[in-house]
Specification:
With 101 residues, the chain is α+β, with helices and mostly antiparallel strands. The protein is 30% helix and 22% strand. A 3-stranded mixed β-sheet has the order 1-3-2.
Length: 101
């Protein structure tokens, strides 16, 4: 039901990265489209009883563009990542908070 496009710096198999991209790169007003009329399966649990009774096996799809805006991609703010030294200092100081980091 949901199709999300991301830039090349996002690992599409990593849901944390994909959600981060949606939250930081998607302007919902312009980059989310809901398109009705896509064929689905009669086994789809979201088919309401009325549609199921008339054998209307259609549903909507959501297209989310979680890419940097192409027309100003070169001006988009860079990703802020702590360097290895700072990361190590923080992890050492706050070990109890970041057990699995």
């Amino acid at each position: 039901r949901y199709i999300i496009t991301v830039d090349e710096d996002i690992d599409p198999s990593n849901l944390d990265e994909v959600l981060w991209a949606v939250c930081t790169r998607c302007d919902p007003e312009h980059y989310i489209d809901i398109v009705p009329g896509f064929l689905t399966s009669p086994l789809d649990p979201m088919l309401n009883p009325e549609k199921r009774a008339r054998k209307d096996y259609t549903t909507a799809k959501v297209f989310i563009n979680a890419c940097k805006p192409y027309h100003w991609k070169d001006k988009f703010p860079p990703v802020n990542v702590a360097g290895p030294e700072l990361r190590e200092k923080v992890l050492t100081k706050w070990t109890k908070l970041f057990k699995d980091a």
